[in-house]
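Show me any protein, fold above all:
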Amino acid sequence: MNILVFGNQDHPDDNLAFKVSEKLSGLANISFQVINPNSDIPLPDNKKIYLIDTVVGIDNVTLITENDLNKILLSPRTTAHDYDLGFQLKYLTKIGKIKKVFIIGLPISGNVDYDLIHLILRKLVAQDMQGS
C-alpha cells in the first residue's frame, strides 16, 4: 500500500507527516511517497487513496474517510493557485477519479500516538489485501 505524505517540511506546524513517515518507513506492505506541494495527487487505478497529513482541529490521530470530506474546511481561494488538498480531494471525489479516501490525520500539537497509527495502518493494509 502506498501512502502519500503531505505537508511542508520547512514549517514546524506542518511537517509532522514527514517525521512520522520516516519513523515508520520499513513497515511491511507499506511505502510512503512524499508529494510536492505543487504536484497533483497521483491517481491510483483502484480509485483508493491513502495519505497522511497534519490536520487542524483534531487532538488525536484520526482516520478520516471520504464520508468526512464535507467536514474539511476549504481555505480562501482567490486565484487558481489557492486550491489546497481539501479542495483537490473533494473535486476528485465529485468527478469520480477517486472513490475511497483514507487520511491518517495527525494533530498539530501534542504527542503522536504511534500505537494508534500502527493500528490504523494494519487495518488499512488488511482491508486493501481483502479488496474492500
Q: What stands out?
A: The domain at 2-130 is CATH 3.40.50 (Rossmann fold). Residues 76-82 have pLDDT under 50 and may be disordered.
